[in-house]
Amino acid sequence: MHGKWTELQRLLQAQWRQLVTVNPSDRPWQKPFAAALASGLPLLIGTLLGRMDYGLVAALGGLVFLYTPRTPLYHRMLTVMAAAFAMIACYALGLLSHFVPLLKMPALVFVTILVSMACRFYGLGVPGSLFFVMAASLGAYTPLEWQQVPLMVGLVALGALLACLIAFFYSAYILRSREPDPAPPLPVPTFDFVVFDSVVIGLFVGLSLAIAQLLQLEKAYWVPVSCLAVIQGASLQAVWNKQLHRLLGTAIGLLVAWGLLLLPLEPWSITLTMMLLAFVVETAVVRHYGFAVIFITPMTILLAEAATLGQGPVAALIEARFFDTVLGCLVGLAGGVCIHNARFRAVVGRQLRRLVPARFGG
């Protein structure tokens, strides 16, 4: 018993050290500032024109700035423009699935598998497929009429275009004082890394949404996003750490969001608050993921719900987002256990290979 207690103490101490460790970062302050502009300028324009709802949709496209790598200018712009195309396509597919509720889950599975394969094949780094899936999930739960689809997709495209312009001017400025990293070679496209992992991730993301639908959650867009954020860990330990960071960060972040939503917010204050949150998130995320999640939570709540604030009780919104996060993290943890289990990979991978043509097997 004494030996087991000592081992448990060591595990708890190691987990505590992991939770409180702050990573060093040489990220220049200009990048968080540019990220805040990329998501904030559409909001400012929308607020100025009296259509904050349009600004929120365009701000979603502004998230593609976060895919700007530290490589030479040509590689940066290729990456950001490809991310812009993927963001627009994923949002459009999500919007279309809104009109046929039975297609929401299959459409999200398809989007997740496709963008996960693309991100792994081309070695796209953090945040990976996360924001593409978030765009599809938000689109699936956006209330609109058929004739509004081109408008909404166009707004995301305009936000993504603005983000590309900001990425270009930011890169042109920062490369004057910072030597870029070389463009990394493409990773080896093995079957397990590109196909198997992507399919399992997509199926578990779809499963999380299916469970949310069975539980009749009203706006379940955050469940698959939380699932994906957890399941993407490079190892089972990383999956567990990501889940713990996300749960604790979300719990504290919901308290922050609750405090913000109790304030007499109006369009201008919401816009400035979101820009400030975006700056803090981009500054903190490379140092401590859990701390960044504290501010990611209210930012995403404002991004998704700002246009309808005041139409329902704040407590119900906060409770729903916390339940969504817990459900998504639990499904993501289960998916992570499967992905990093050798027996599961051998059995399921063998069956999956039979469905894939030999020339795609890697």
Automatic annotation (TrEMBL):
InterPro entries from the UniProt entry: Memb_transporter_dom
Record-linked Pfam families: FUSC_2
Gene Ontology cellular component list: membrane
Location(s), subcellular: Membrane
Residue stretches making up the Integral membrane bound transporter domain: 208-334
Protein topology in the membrane: Multi-pass membrane protein
Domain of life: Bacteria
UniProt keyword terms in alphabetical order: Membrane, Transmembrane, Transmembrane helix
Main location, first listed in the record: membrane
Record field: transmembrane: 33-66, 78-100, 106-139, 151-173, 193-214, 221-240, 246-265, 277-302, 322-344
Name of the protein described by the UniProt record: Fusaric acid resistance protein-like
Originating organism: Pseudomonas linyingensis
